[in-house]
Amino acid sequence: xxxxxxxxxxxxxxxxxxxxxxxxxxxxxxxxxxxxxxxxxxxxxxxxxxxxxxxxxxxxxxxxxxxxxxxxxxxxxxxxxxxxxxxxxxxxxxxxxxxxxxxxxxxxxxxxxxxxxxxxxxxxxxxxxxxxxxxxxxxxxxxxxxxxxxxxxxxxxxxxxxxxxxxxxxxxxxxxxxxxxxxxxxxxxxxxxxxxxxxxxxxxxxxxxxxxxxxxxxxxxxxxxxxxxxxxxxxxxxxxxxxxxxxxxxxxxxxxxxxxxxxxxxxxxxxxxxxxxxxxxxxxxxxxxxxxxxxxxxxxxxxxxxxxxxxxxxxxxxxxxxxxxxxxxxxxxxxxxxxxxxxx
Length: 344
What we know:
Layout: E1 3-4, H1 15-23, H2 36-49, E2 55-59, H3 62-73, E3 78-83, H4 87-90, H5 95-98, E4 103-106, H6 115-123, E5 133-140, H7 151-163, E6 167-171, H8 175-179, H9 188-194, E7 197-201, E8 211-215, H10 224-230, H11 239-249, H12 253-274, E9 287-288, E10 291-293, H13 294-300, E11 304-305, E12 307-311, E13 316-322, H14 329-342
Parallel strand pairs: 1-11, 3-4, 3-5, 5-6, 6-7
Antiparallel strand pairs: 2-8, 7-8, 9-13, 10-13, 12-13
Helix pairs in contact: 1-11, 2-11, 12-14
């Protein structure tokens, strides 16, 4: 049997969620997210972000969340600004573009956006009305490269967006992993205070399916539910999502699961660093990108599944290793054992 480091959703869901779904299976509830579980989960999320006035919506997946948020926020002639490594550019089959909105990409070394990255884009789109209008800045935490935003970075970016009439949208597919990183000083309530809209990803952190979209900016709340329905994302049995997020939010299970995934990844990272291995990016989340020889990659592939992320030179490549909420010590210890043997 191979151990998988391919993604953070290869398992089913946390046992608490499966148990809650079974226990409440025959309880009759209203549909379309009006059930008591969804309402209780929304209340918990609002408490954790310290914003009782936020609107919370449960959606089945990340791509769905991204395209619904962006298409509902923007007017037809407005566009998105994203790092070139952004998920909406590389892994969503043109979903955002299919809604009629262009994505302006910016090359960054670490997958993060800063004001100095965005300024040239704004200056290059002043030929009004002949060019699309940059209106929304899309970021993710953690990023596709496993890096995170610190509080100061997000504060600076948020202020810049406000000063330039831009919405700030944070993709939180791996929000738990970003916030529980050992180097993070960012908190969930700060994210809520500094973004116009963000979402908490459940799919990659212990849920069967589900993301919780949180709208902080009152101007973006109007008629948002219509967009969810029109895009086919309003589940009749909304309890499926509500029950899951209720379990994840109770007793901070959501953050405990993410913290575990990060811890397992750091065990592998530290073992590799001790043996002189370098990395594509310096990460402290559940995604790491070690640069290995193609020979070593072949040996590891006999026991583990992972992605070869980027060719570095003739003999080496960067691979992506992702640990999940359920990654056990056996997989991590076996990986370290093989590394120790081959690099001794």
